[in-house]
Amino acid sequence: MATKAEEVKGVVSAAPFIISQVMLSTDANVSGVVVKGIDPGKAGNVTELLVYLTAGRLQDLQTTQDNLTGIILGVELAKHLGVSVKDTLQMISPLGTMTPMGMMPKMKRFRVVGIFRSGI
């Protein structure tokens, strides 16, 4: 099914995405990053991620066997965090839930399913 964007003359393909600032945390390190959420089924049509992927598969972004969501990291970020494919990390969003104790950040565990090298 075509989206409204794909109905525009000259548009070859379109895919939804979301961008947000979060922190990624492992036992070894923490890093503030800009994360881009993509639709793995459509991302190959609108990005060159597959060209830069050095480990893992785009399809593995779906929920993993252990019910964790997959994540693909840049090679330098993976080195900084001390993780590789199959490792887990914690994503912490500053946009959380207000509690009587104040703002509580949202946290979710992810499984590293790929590494890419963009040349940046």
Short description:
The chain has 120 residues and is of the alpha+beta class. The chain has helices at residues 40-46, 49-52, 75-81, and strands spanning 17-25, 30-38, 53-56, 69-74, 88-99, 102-116.
Structure, described:
By secondary structure, the protein is α+β, with helices and mostly antiparallel strands. 15% of the residues lie in helices and 46% in strands. Strands 1, 2, 3, 4, 5 and 6 form a 6-stranded mixed beta sheet that branches. The longest helix is centred in the middle third of the chain and has 7 residues, at 40-46. The N and C termini lie far apart (35 Å).
Q: Kindly, what is the distance between the CA atoms of the first and last residues, rounded to a whole number of angstroms?
A: 35 Å
Count of individual beta strands = 6
Shape: globular
Rg, rounded, reads 16 Å
What is the chains' assembly state? single chain
Taken as a percent bin, the fraction of beta residues is over 45%
Helix content estimate = 10-25%
Order of helices and strands: EEHHEEHEE
Q: What about the largest sheet?
A: 6 strands, mixed
What low-confidence regions span 5 or more consecutive residues with pLDDT below 50? none
Which class of secondary structure composition applies to the elements? alpha+beta
